[in-house]
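Are you able to produce any protein sequence you like plus the matching backbone structure tokens because I've never seen that pairing?
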Amino acid sequence: MTSRPSPESLRRLLRQERDDAWAVRLLRRIVLGIAGAYTLFTFASAGRAAFVTVCGLLVLAVILWMLRRRGQLLLALVSTVVTAAMTGYLAAVGDIARGTAGGLLSGQAVLGYWVLGAMALLGAWMLRQPRGRRGVTVVLADVTLIGASVVGMLAPFLGVPLGFLGVVGVLTVRSGTFHSVKKSERRVKRPEVRRVAVAADRGGR
């Protein structure tokens, strides 16, 4: 014999709980997700450029969501992208000012700046004992690259070498190498100073 559902179980099934926060959040996410997906689909159907824009925004959103708990890496990536855009813009402005738009030399300089930006990004995460946060190290190296690109507007041959020296200098200073060397020098000098002081006391006596 099959047992019939009791009125109490039916009432419990149909009744909406007042403190059912999980269902409220889920329903809100479903509605907003459907509305957002429909909006993106409508916008992407307008043309090829709109489709590429939507795909880029989706990729960017996924990257931001994956890096939401890695603030330093997100800061470093944003700084690298901004630096690549700034160095390319400054190189183009320098070409226009010299009357040689789209020159080979500026293209090589932009490629060099991008390589140095990637070098700063990878080098900051290759440091074993960094002094300070790694994202801040990338930002400092990128600032030196932008300064070098400003110099490269006037003297294209000096931009990339100055950027290389700046990036290497920032990575070296932030690597803690000098700090460890100073510590070791202090440890070596302390016994020597003590020996000299003891010898001076004995000689005075």
User: Anything to note?
Assistant: The longest helix spans residues 71-98. The chain is about 85% helix and 0% strand. The helical segments are 7-14, 21-44, 48-66, 71-98, 104-126, 134-154, 156-174, 177-204.
